[in-house]
């Protein structure tokens, strides 16, 4: 790939309402913990500042809409000039075929980052897709059957 695919891992650790009835969350992203409301726009702005203009979003079939995340994620990406493609086929205990399909979509779209929205399965799948997008000659099964190991890059 011409550009290194980056994975932004977002874990919502705690959601509370402040005095204005705004969601205030504690999140972790790439080792950085942020305590604040409206973190969606901050993450999109950080991606944009790093030159990331295309992302793939991985999530389950409908929870991202039911829990209201989509109402914040989509405008944040659009407001920061980030194109996206949505892969909403992640199931609990996802299989390698879903990750391979998402990887192919990511590469075809030219995604520069992978975002997982949801719990463990979307987050783990996003990490897998980020790795596999850098190794299109391999399948997800190759990774988890230890047929190859990604190179570790120090930054």
Your description of this structure?
- The chain is an alpha/beta fold.
- It has six helices and seven strands, in the order E-E-E-E-H-E-H-H-E-H-E-H-H.
- The strands form two sheets. It has a four-stranded parallel beta sheet, with helices on one face. A three-stranded antiparallel beta sheet has the order 2-3-4, with no helix packed on it.
- The protein is globular and about 40 Å long.
Key terms for this structure?
globular; four-stranded parallel β-sheet; disordered N terminus; single chain; 155 residues; 6 helices; three-stranded antiparallel β-sheet; alpha/beta
Write a concise synopsis of the structure shown.
By secondary structure, this protein is of the alpha/beta class. 37% of the residues lie in helices and 24% in strands.
Low-confidence stretches: 1-16, 23-35
Distance between the termini: 18 Å
Helices, by number, come to 6
Series of H and E elements: EEEEHEHHEHEHH
- Fraction of residues in β-strands: 15-25%
The proportion of residues forming helix, as a percent range, comes to: 25-40%
How large, in whole angstroms, is the Cα Rg?
Answer: 15 Å
Structural class: alpha/beta
Mean pLDDT, to the nearest integer, reads 79
Spatial shape: globular
Number of strands: 7
How do the strands line up in the largest sheet? 1-7-5-6
The biggest beta sheet, please?
4 strands, parallel
SSE order and pairing:
Elements: E1 6-8, E2 11-17, E3 23-29, E4 32-37, H1 39-49, E5 54-58, H2 63-66, H3 70-79, E6 83-87, H4 96-109, E7 113-116, H5 120-132, H6 140-144
Parallel strand pairs: 1-7, 5-6, 5-7
Antiparallel strand pairs: 2-3, 3-4
